[in-house]
Amino acid sequence: MKVVACRGLTKAYGHTKVLDGMNFNLEENKITGLIGRNGVGKTTLLKLIAGFYKETSGEIKVWGERPFNSLTVSANTIFVDDHMSFAPALNLGEIIGEMGRFYANWNAELAKRLFDYFSFHPKQSHDTLSKGKRNTFNMIIGLASRCPLTIFDEPTTGMDAAVRKDFYRALLKDYLAFPRTIILSSHHLDEIEDLLEDILLIDQGEVLLNVSMEEMKEYAVGISGKESVLEEWLLDREVLYAKSIGPDSKYVVVKKDYGVSEAARHGLTVRPVSASDACVYLTNKAKGGIDDVFK
Ligand SMILES: Nc1ncnc2c1ncn2[C@@H]1O[C@H](COP(=O)(O)OP(=O)(O)OP(=O)(O)O)[C@@H](O)[C@H]1O
Q1: How many CB atoms within 10 Å of residue 287?
Q2: Which residue of 34, 97, 256, 285 is surrounded by the most CB atoms within 10 Å?
Q3: What tens digit of pLDDT does each residue of 180-198 get?
């Protein structure tokens, strides 16, 4: 079943279109990674899904309803980011104690266990937490709320490597025990690719890919070898990335297709390309690489 369905979804701030005619669906009870470069509109898209923002044109449906001003969507969704705020008069212990009144599936025991594991003090105030600790606390709220639609926008900002690892593990364990629809935006695809089932890659206001993680892992391959042989083999193939690796040798990244299996017969070397690198190449195409700046 589709939880999110968008057709021609467009969002503009003033005259600037950030999302431009997006079409995609997100399936129920899956973990989807929303991946894209800085400023491409990930937060905007997540806030449209959560019903915080109104679309400019096109259609967005969450459980078949327009999310903006929808009680169903707001009652069943949690949006976790580093701007999450709570009543300033409440300390952390009191916030945890009150959450059950807001979230129908709130699990107080899980919240308490995570709270103790990450060494929070009940008397601490949310406003005085460091960036990493604040996001760790927000993550606890996001997990323990067990909302049918759980949205994490860059949840690991400021967390150290050990806490990020713990967070991904906790997310996976709780998701397996209590499946729900989770959208996770992150810049660390390499860290989360084993967690994700689907991926939504966006760039320049559009959906570049909406595929399973398995497909993403197989999406591209790197081919290297003698430049003249490689150029001939490439023919009309679209090159996602290219660099010289010697006086007459070259390395290119191309979409994996049937012809790729023949590359070895031409004396070329074929290597896998990670999902994370494939996303970087796909979203860097228009700009070229940092090396171009120094040419
Ligand atoms: N309220 C707003 N008013 C005007 N422009 C905005 C507003 N919010 C976001 N933008 C612009 O929309 C674009 C997309 O911003 P958004 O925060 O959605 O991107 P993002 O992909 O989440 O970025 P990052 O990865 O850096 O967090 C940016 O150019 C941003 O400056």
Answers
A1: 10
A2: 34
A3: 999 999 877 888 988 999 9
Specify the CATH number of the domain 217-294: 3.30.70
Are the CB atoms for 154 and 82 separated by under 8 Å? yes
Q: Are 185 and 82 in contact (CB under 8 A)?
A: no
Residue 129's alpha-carbon distances to 96, 139, 157, 167, in angstroms, are: 15, 14, 14, 18
Query: Which DSSP category does 249 fall into?
Result: E
pLDDT digits (tens, 9 = 90+) for 269-289: 999 999 999 999 998 865 556
Q: Is the CB of 49 under 6 A from ligand 1?
A: no
Residue position matching structure tokens 């590359």: 263
The residue nearest atom 2 of ligand 1, judged by CA position, is 13
Closest residue by Cα to residue 139 from 80, 221, 198: 80
Please identify, in words, the CATH class of the domain defined by 2-215. Answer: alpha beta
**Domain-by-domain residue ranges, the chain?**
2-215, 217-294
3-state SS assignment for residue 69: coil
Structure tokens at 51: 């019903």
Name the residue at shortest CA distance from atom 16 of ligand 1.
41
Cβ(15) to ligand 1 under 6 A? no
**Ligand 1 close to Cβ of residue 283 (< 6 A):** no
